[in-house]
Amino acid sequence: MSLNKNEFFPVGALEQFLVQIGRVVEIGGRQIAVFRLSDGRIFAAVNQSPHPKGGPLAEGIVSGHYLYDPLYDWKIDLTTGLVQAPDNGQAQMLTTKVEDGQVWIAAGELQAV
Predict the structure, then answer these.
(1) Which residue among 22, 60, 98, 106 sits deepest, i.e. has the most Cβ atoms within 10 Å of its Cβ?
(2) Where is the Rieske domain (predicted)?
(3) Which residues, 6+ apart, have CB-to-CB distance to 9 below 8 Å?
(4) What are 79-107's pLDDT values in tens digits?
(5) What domains sit in the chain, N to C, each tagged with a CATH number?
């Protein structure tokens, strides 16, 4: 999939994304985990844990702006994708925007697998 880095794709209406519940959307065959925080901000990450054994992120628990990995309980900062100490790693985050009630993701930021 060849995308312009600044190209945004619509992934659904804002009300389709429940507060503090991850939802998986697909862009170009890749699963993206989308999270809506209690303050209304939207974050998106490739739906793959940065843990060496991998796993889904969308099933994690959201608290504030942190996501707790559902398999390894790693604490991930959704604003940066960084795993918090004592663990380390980084989730691949994607830029999001909300316009006219529609959630958009900068799919051009997807790195090759």
Answers:
(1) 60
(2) 9-105
(3) 27, 104, 105, 107
(4) 999 999 999 999 999 999 999 999 999 98
(5) 8-109 (2.102.10.10)
Contact present, 26 and 33 (Cβ < 8 Å)? no
DSSP state of 86: T
Stretches where the chain sits below pLDDT 70 are 1-6, 111-113
Whether this model's pTM surpasses 0.85: yes
Q: How far apart are CA 37 and CA 59, in angstroms?
A: 14
List of residues 6+ apart from 19 with CB closer than 8 A = 36, 37, 38
Q: How many CB atoms lie within 10 A of CB 40?
A: 9
Task: Count CB-CB contacts under 10 A for residue 100.
Answer: 6
Instruction: Please state the separation of Cα 87 from the chain's center in Å.
Output: 19
Residue 19 DSSP label: B
